[in-house]
Specification:
single chain, about 200 residues, about 0% strand
Length: about 200
Amino acid sequence: MSKEQVKTATQIGILFVLPVLLIFFGAIPVQYRFFVLLAITILVIAVVVAEKWTLKDLGIRLDNIKKSASWYLIFTVFATVAIIVLARLFNHNTQNIIGSIHFQYGFIVLSLLQEFLFRSFLIPKLKALTSSPTLVIILNGLLFGFIHVIFPNPLSLFILSSLLGAGFAAVYFYRPNLILATVAHSIINFVAVFYCFASFGAGCT
């Protein structure tokens, strides 16, 4: 590995692996996970500024919305149907989340932060480590799933989030657009929480 690749791998380890391990093993209380996510976001923004990334580098763009919208729409519909089918197969309850904090603040804010971190920032970093699109997509999916082990129902969330993360990564790899990714993520996140793949309400048992 070159010095630049070692630097990139170190950044990924510190930003995307270490915080999760600290929370998972109790070094950081789990109730502070959202603040940890904010701290990671601030550090990532610092890296982006220091390395002089452009808005286009981050997928913040309007020029490819028309040609990318169908990709994100198809993935969103497919993922939503898959979640509903899995929920029915495993007899998941539904939960009333309309009045919850997660609904009021989570679906847009968390979706935006996660897409910014895992797609806008992480995918270019992974591309700097390997020229294989398949490996970039798989690693991105696994790292996305890994961060979800600090939420309720860690095993099912890890599997589901890894698969969804790989799907998001595949779409973003070929059609990078943070706006569309955030919208898709918000919709899928809502459905997954509603069907108790993450339990933020009393309706999940």
